[in-house]
């Protein structure tokens, strides 16, 4: 599986209307979690964040919010941010703009947030314009670093290294609270949090 763990500047420039990282003026980094809520992974993530006094941002799938409302409510009650990740994890490159927006707005019925992350990071320029037109104050959040926890060809230690060797203030980092990522997430997240603690990074929500 080919993917870039660190987003090149040229990609950030092409999709400059999206947010790839935050200002590096403070010592803050931003851990994000895609595809939940999940009955096992999301509570684990929440427990780990609480242990380290950290806040995160959860990009939720609408159908999963319906399936696990109590976990979604816990995310909110513990002071984390939430974002829309479509209702059915749609790939924008393979979906018409009309169907894509219908799916985004369906998820919005359950996820009240201006933050949006396109599944797979795949969204067309026209879909971006439509999304910003239909959702007041919409912010499309991409990432600076991928942990790679979705990649079944690597192990948890590789995910740790993908993050800690390139982590800098202002970075937006992607993990996944999902079945597919669970084995690597459960290994990598505590070690990344411990690294951030030792580096005196402040872990903020978007």
List the helices and strands and how they pair.
Layout: H1 9-14, E1 28-34, H2 41-51, E2 57-60, H3 62-67, H4 69-77, E3 81-84, H5 97-108, E4 115-116, H6 125-134, E5 139-140, E6 145-146, H7 156-164, E7 172-176, H8 182-198, E8 202-203
Parallel strand pairs: 1-2, 1-7, 1-8, 2-3, 4-5, 6-7
Helix pairs in contact: 2-8, 5-6, 7-8
Gyration radius, in Å: 16 Å
Mean pLDDT, all residues: 97
Can you count the beta strands?
Answer: 8
Secondary-structure element string: HEHEHHEHEHEEHEHE
Number of helical elements? 8
**Strand percent estimate:** 5-15%
**Apparent shape:** globular
SSE-based structural type: alpha/beta
**Terminal Cα span:** 29 Å
What kind of sheet is the major sheet?
6 strands, parallel
Can you give the helix content as a percent range? Answer: 25-40%
Uncertain ranges: none
Detailed description of the structure:
This protein is an alpha/beta fold and 206 residues long. Helix content is 39%, strand content 14%. It is built from eight helices and eight strands, in the order αβαβααβαβαββαβαβ. The strands form two sheets. Strands 1, 2, 3, 6, 7 and 8 form a six-stranded parallel sheet that branches. It has a two-stranded parallel ribbon with strand order 4-5. Strand 1, helix 2 (41-51) and strand 2 form a beta-alpha-beta unit. The two termini are 29 Å apart. The relative contact order is 0.23.
């Amino acid at each position: 599986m080919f993917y870039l763990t660190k987003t090149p500047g040229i990609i950030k420039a092409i999709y400059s209307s999206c947010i790839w990282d935050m200002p590096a003026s403070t010592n803050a980094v931003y851990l994000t979690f895609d595809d939940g809520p999940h009955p096992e992974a999301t509570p684990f993530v929440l427990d780990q964040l609480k242990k380290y006094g950290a806040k995160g941002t959860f990009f939720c799938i609408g159908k999963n919010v319906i399936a696990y409302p109590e976990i979604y409510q816990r995310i909110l009650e513990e002071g984390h941010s939430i974002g829309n990740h479509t209702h059915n994890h749609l790939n924008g490159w393979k979906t018409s703009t009309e169907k894509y927006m219908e799916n985004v707005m369906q998820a919005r019925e359950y996820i009240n947030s201006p933050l949006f992350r396109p599944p797979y990071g795949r969204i067309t320029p026209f879909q971006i314009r439509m999304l910003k037109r239909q959702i007041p104050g919409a912010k499309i959040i991409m990432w600076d670093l991928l942990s790679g926890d979705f990649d079944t060809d690597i192990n948890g230690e590789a995910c740790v290294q993908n993050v800690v060797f390139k982590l800098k203030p202002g970075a937006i980092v992607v993990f996944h609270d999902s079945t597919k990522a669970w084995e690597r997430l459960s290994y990598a997240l505590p070690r990344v949090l411990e690294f951030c603690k030792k580096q005196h990074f402040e872990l903020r929500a978007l």
